[in-house]
Amino acid sequence: MFAKAIISTGRPLAVSTSVDNLRVKFIANSFLEYSFRAKKSFDREEVTMHWLRTVLCDGDIIYDVGANVGAYSLYAAMKYPSCQVYAFEPAYVNFCSLCENIKANQLDGRVLAYPLGIGSHVKPNKMFLRDTTSGSALHGLGTPESEGRRFAAKFTQGTFETSLDCFSKDARSDFPNHIKIDVDGGEGHVLDGMKNVLSDGRLRSIMVEVNQSVWNDRIEEAILKTGFELVMAEQLANGETVNQLFVRN
């Protein structure tokens, strides 16, 4: 394949993906980033795309927790020109690509990338990478564990962990109207660190990927208690993970 041959030489590949009359540009630094993130992100998650297309509004503030290389952050900022996106991605291999993709789409300032781990504490922490390929996932914040399973880390980096309650209350941050959470088994910790955000009426929707073998119904129950309704759900390919969209009543 032409793309794989180009990337195998160590050269990044510029590629555009057409979706909903938009052309989203990616600077792919690996074949994984090209084939899975650039080419498949907008086709493989029905609930996420429903959320992006119909729940968000222009002028909203969006937090993308676990942004990876930024496919959904880029789409949101392009579809809603007056929105502000905060994209959180602690893994260095993905953060670099996230920033390159923001620049390629001329979204500097409208998508703000933060190399932060989002959890329940505010402290220096470690990020354990299962893979050092750009576009990879299933890494671990604090422990070499993802989706409830231990792994042998290929690389350990430093990061800073913060909570959404802490981040959002800073005067230099905007409070979120919508939050997407995709952190490969760490979603319960993110939720533990956003109790004030959850109870605030300005937050109107939560799009979360939940590993039910790790959390059972705990995530759903915690969100429903704060005035949200589960409006859409989709089981993903591994059978243990489900995308759930919650909208405030």
Short description:
The chain has 249 residues and is of the alpha/beta class.
Describe the model.
The protein is 33% helix and 32% strand. It is of the alpha/beta class. The strands form four sheets. A seven-stranded mixed beta sheet has the order 5-4-3-12-13-15-14, with helices on both faces. Strands 6-11-7-8 form a four-stranded mixed beta sheet. A two-stranded antiparallel ribbon has the order 1-2. The radius of gyration is 17 Å and the shape is globular. The model has no long low-confidence stretch (mean pLDDT 96).
Radius of gyration: 17 Å
Count every beta strand, where a strand is a DSSP E run of 2 or more residues: 15
Provide a count of the helices.
Answer: 10
Strand content: 25-35%
**Helicity, in percent?**
25-40%
Straight-line distance between termini: 49 Å
Q: What form results from the Cα inertia axes? A: globular
Which structural class do the helices and strands define? alpha/beta
The strand order across the widest sheet is: 5-4-3-12-13-15-14
Q: Mean of residue pLDDT?
A: 96
